[in-house]
Amino acid sequence: MAKMFNKIMGIIGLDDGSIEEEFDDQEDMKLPRETDEELDEPILSSKKSNKVVNIHTASSVRVVISRPKDYDEATAICDELKNRRIIVVNVSDLEPKTAQRLLDFMGGASYVLNGELQEVEKNVYILSPSNVEVSNELQTELSGKSMFMWNK
User: Fold this and answer.
1) What number of other Cβ atoms are within 10 A of residue 81's Cβ?
2) Are the CB atoms for 94 and 72 separated by under 8 Å?
3) In the chain, what are the domains?
4) Sheet containing strand 124-128, strands side by side
5) What is the mean pLDDT, run by run of 10 residues, along the chain of 152 residues?
6) E strand spans, the chain
7) Is 83 helix (H, G, I), strand (E, B) or coil?
């Protein structure tokens, strides 16, 4: 009966000899050996490293007030904008043609640096870098209303 049982087990594939043979086959397989070059490669993790950004930066916002006397001061004003500073420019001392040239130069620089050039008052302009938003709500409020009650 044991022979018949072994035959049935052999047909099904559960013969003790075949199981041992499978294990022997696995032992004969050689695993590829790692070379020194492979060991020197860094192991990269599948996780992406998170970047930590400090929201409390030590740099303070500076406002530069400029009253240019001639067109040659345009580059110095735009350098301040390049350094991410807010600049208030009063062009009342310039001739109208020179003031227009200066404003064109500053407008081009603010466009290139993704900044903004806004008129605050007649002959007074503000240049702001891309990281500063300037709200101009007061101008629209003043244009609709008189400053003094008796001027209505």
Assistant:
1) 23
2) no
3) 63-132 (3.30.110.150)
4) 63-66, 86-90, 124-128, 116-121
5) 74 63 56 57 59 62 89 92 92 93 93 91 90 73 57 53
6) 63-66, 86-90, 116-121, 124-128
7) coil
